[in-house]
Amino acid sequence: MKKLILTVAILMFCKSLFADSDIHTISLKHRLASEVVDQVRPFLPESATIKAYDNMLILKSDRATVANVEQLIKKLDVPLKSVLVTVWQTSEQLNHQSGHQANIELSTKEPNASVSIKQWSTKGKDDKNNRYSAQGIAGQPIAINIGNARPEKDYLYFVNANGNIGFASNTQYISTSRGFMAVPFLLSDNNVKVEIHPFFSDRSHDGQINSSNLISTVHGKLGQWIEIAYVSEDQHEQKEGLKQYQTHQGQQQIIYLKVETSSN
Q1: What percent of the chain has pLDDT over 90?
Q2: For residue range 188-202, what is the model confidence (pLDDT) as tens digits?
Q3: d(Cα 133, Cα 74) in Å, to the nearest integer?
Q4: Is the model's pLDDT at 1 over the cut of 90?
Q5: Fewer CB atoms inside 10 A, N or C side of the chain?
Q6: Strands (E), the chain
Q7: Whether the Cβ atoms of residue 137 and residue 83 lie closer than 8 Å to each other
Q8: What residue segments make up the domains of the chain, in order of their start?
Q9: What is the tens place of the pLDDT at every residue in 157-174?
Q10: What is the CATH number of domain 2-76?
Q11: Coil/strand/helix, residue 19
């Protein structure tokens, strides 16, 4: 009799143990599961596993872990915020300066460097002809292209059956881009952080397109202009494939960036 009772107790304990470590699903309302699964995974015990499928997290764990994940999901599963990134390219600095000094951290294959910039308010001269805007989602890359396309003509000379010489021409437009990828993050107190992934490319005399890539991070206020770069068509020097540019009076182009939410 005692053996029977002990066996039943063991079976009930095993049943409870396996039932406690079962497969659970958690549905998301505003985000895809693939967008949050990497943020959840560090909080799981080693015995738990998690997979992302569409808008659903599939979790194999005990009930206590599921409860913790559900609490975390309440913080992560929030509506995505739409933002408008506007870039203003002008040859003049904004008036009515307000704001503080900020630093752009440059991360390249070359040794790290930092560039001091100023943050400006939206008050100042208005040059709408050189503005570029792109809609996107906070935390996601937004492409800003402020380049142009240069015509390149190809000529073909030939001799026909009568011995006459003729030629044909074809015009192609080769894109020379000066733009960047902006990744805006909305912070507390109307602050924004923008990761800048710029690319500069230009055609050399032999027709090759050279390019370089840098990564910068700037901070500022939501809805205010932030000066992020100087651009000049005049080449200063070339070092190990990375072309550097300097500003000349009358030829400089200053680039400002502003992040706004859809409610602005």
Answers
A1: 21
A2: 888 999 988 766 655
A3: 33
A4: no
A5: N
A6: 22-27, 49-53, 56-61, 82-90, 101-106, 113-118, 131-137, 142-145, 148-159, 165-176, 178-186, 191-203, 209-213, 216-221, 226-231, 235-239, 242-245, 253-261
A7: yes
A8: 2-76, 82-147+178-261
A9: 666 677 777 666 666 655
A10: 3.30.1370.120
A11: helix
